Amino acid sequence: MNETLGRRERALLGAIAAALLVALIWLRGGLQPAAPLEQLARQSLDLPVALSNGRPTIVEFYADWCEACRAMAPAMAKVEHQHQGSLDVVLLNVDNPRWQPEVDRYGVNGIPQLELFDSHGDDVGRSIGARQLAELEAIGEALIAEGPLPQLAGMGAISTLGSDNGLRAETNPATMASPRSHG
């Protein structure tokens, strides 16, 4: 009788362990692969490599907590996949101190922000705010064709004038909003 009770207890403990495992997997998002934003961030090239490899580049400044960034990620992943080998997509997390020099350099004060580079690594445009798939495709195709960027709200070309007259004029970082201030 003692042996029968031991088997029942082991079976019950096994069932409880299996139920806890299923609950843990369910609570952590299941066995699905990482979300598109995390996948893109993980597989993106280092910025210096992307800017020097002869392909145009879209750099997205994002944050894990940014709902607009998460919503835009599937479209960005599709554009990256469609133009693999002819267009680079690089994601830089504004919450990662490693990218603070780039956040400052490109004046990121809201996310998502896209910096657009031609095949020579020259900054040719900027897009602020979430974009739909058709808009991202138009941006990518314009960069690949080295043509004019599409005229979309929240988007513009970078001036080729010097910093005294151009869009990249020096600003006081103390007076600028932080990308993290839009939470």
Record keyword descriptors for this entry.
five-stranded mixed β-sheet; alpha+beta; 6 helices
Give the total of domains: 2
Helical fraction equals 40-55%
Strand order within the widest beta sheet: 2-1-3-4-5
Number of strands: 5
CATH-scheme architecture of the largest domain: 3-Layer(aba) Sandwich
Characterize the overall form: elongated
- CATH class of the largest domain equals Alpha Beta
CATH level 4 superfamily of the largest domain: Glutaredoxin
Largest sheet: 5 strands, mixed
Q: What is the first-to-last residue Cα distance?
A: 62 Å
The low-confidence parts are 162-178
Average per-residue pLDDT, rounded, comes to 82
Summarize the helix and strand pattern as letters.
HHHEHEHEEHE
Helices and strands in order, then pairings?
Elements: H1 2-27, H2 36-43, H3 47-52, E1 57-62, H4 67-82, E2 88-93, H5 100-105, E3 113-117, E4 123-128, H6 133-145, E5 155-157
Q: How would you describe what is shown here?
A:
By secondary structure, this protein is an alpha+beta fold. It has two domains: about 1-30; about 35-180, Glutaredoxin. About 40% of the residues lie in helices and about 15% in strands. It is built from six helices and five strands. It has a five-stranded mixed beta sheet with strand order 2-1-3-4-5. Strand 1, helix 4 (about 65-80) and strand 2 form a beta-alpha-beta unit. The radius of gyration is 23 Å and the shape is elongated.
What is the gist of this entry?
With about 180 residues, the protein is an alpha+beta fold. It has helices at about 1-25, 35-45, 45-50, 65-80, 100-105, 135-145; strands spanning about 55-60, 90-95, 115, 125-130, 155. It has a five-stranded mixed sheet.
